[in-house]
Amino acid sequence: MADQIPESTISEIRSTADIVDIVSEVVLLKRAGKNFQGLCPFHSEKTPSFTVSPDKQVFYCFGCGAGGNVFTFLMQHEGLSFPEAVRTLGRRYGIVVEDRQLSPEERARMAERDGIFDVHQQAAAFFRRMLLESPEGRTARAYLEKRGMRSETIERFSLGYAPPEWDALAKYFAGRRVPTTYLETAGLIIPRKSGSGFYDRFRDRIIFPITGVSSRILGFGGRVMDDAMPKYLNSPESPVFNKRRSLYGLEAARGRCRETGTAYVVEGYFDVLALAQAGVTNALATLGTALTAGHVKTLKGHVSDIVLVFDSDQAGIRAALKSVEVFRKENMDARILVLPEGHDPDSFIRKFGAEAFGAAARNARSMMDFLMEETIRKHGLSVEGKLRIISEMQGPLGAISDRMARSLYIRNLAEKTGVDEAMIAERIAPTNPPGGGRRGPAAAGGGGPAGEACLTGRHIRIERKIITMMLQFPDILPEVERRHTLELFEDEQLKSIGRRILTQYSTTGKYHVSDVIEALDDTEREMTVNLAIGGDVWDREGCLRLLAQFESGRKRQKDNLLQKIEAASRNNDQALLLKLLKEKQHRARKRQTIN
Ligand SMILES: [Zn+2]
What we know:
- This protein has 595 residues and is of the alpha+beta class.
- Helices cover 54% and strands 11% of the residues.
- It folds into 4 domains: 2-102, DNA Primase, Chain A; 105-241, Alpha-Beta Complex (DNA primase DNAg catalytic core, N-terminal domain), CATH 3.90.980.10; 369-427; 441-594.
- Helix 15 (367-379) runs antiparallel to helix 16 (383-398) and helix 24 packs antiparallel against helix 25 (574-594).
- The radius of gyration is 30 Å and the shape is globular.
- It binds zinc ion.
- Zinc ion is lined by residues 40, 42-43, 50, 61, 63-64, 66.
């Protein structure tokens, strides 16, 4: 597929796009030496092992092994094909990629996405005009005023109003000759059950456009102004809208989230607005759904500290308990702020002000504390109650992988319940051994009978080192070519990566890691990026020593076995000869299987 787009276009985009820019839209990156690090968007982790190299323009996760260049990142994160990733970046950096270079399906998919975004843009303008200028909008304007919404807030969040008629929006679009398929897929209009034609999804509602990080409108939320049901109505899922990942207010909150490192997650759209109006501009809301793993993934791309804000009623506390579970599964921490009885963020900030909200947020409890206190409150401290508390806390406490943290929480629980600390500790076995399931840089080689594996392991290690050198110190490439070093490689995968580097170097006279990896398959690409991203220091002499050491080791190994075979055959030691020949065969086969 890649060859449909001219290499010159691809390489122009590749050299213009900055991987740090692109990744940091969705991953919170911190500088770590020459590289940047953050929490991996592809697997759940607590300590950052996701690394981005601005020099090499590649990313690699030491936790799950995901790796690649700027195109690979977009493909994996957004679920795009290669040409789509190229085109997306091209558009962002103002480089034209011809449409004919996409397959018909891809072209249709892109056209549909663009069509829906366009329809959203036009619909938002329509709703806005209805709110601000139309006579029907008068009630909506009065309603917003009654809720204390100032005009700059209405402006900032681009609020709108859907008039009460059945087909105001449908008519509006009919006049503008917009294809109904896009409107229907976007969920703005719904086909009538009887007869033909469509009616509007949103009627007589305040409209909240839901914007993604790219500033494009993903969908809409609509709220009634009286007690009608449903209170909130959202756009349905569409090719551009995923409710389980999207958060209301993300675009407006993003900057402040990055500055403070904190995000407040509230329950309603009006909570976001009220907080922003009071100066707390880093608040977001889920879209009427419970918090999901997708939301947590989105959030951790922007902040390191998440405060979940809940109303103090039972529903709020139940929701809080549920989200503890979601965060636990995603290996992410959050703090929980339950507001005083009878308040939601909107009413709280109106009554007590932004400073009081900040103070309450600073004192927000850790999830584990919250869970412990709620469990104790639920069961009480009778003997029965204590037994239930310990049994309910078993899972969450066992899941804490940090041993120190676990034992501190166990002590805390012992103090709160008066149950012996050792007894609790005995019950709570860690369910999640630290580092379990990780794929470290060392895990790639190995296998086979122990002795052989050990020998092979050593050779593979030095072969890996040579490829690492080639990736990080291109000055050595002519020497590697001259000595035919790769011909001595046992590991076929490393050999093929090495060949790819040499080909790239000899055909273009220059070489960059991010260019090489497009032609590789997933495993090769991940391995290449893993080796390339390290910060080893190379000098020419050390490199030559490494090559010489490798060559002589390989020669010794070969000579050794051949000598032994000769000696055994001279001595007519049939048993030994058979064993040695088997070993020779085994090595040959090993080379083949790697192949
Ligand atoms: Zn990862």
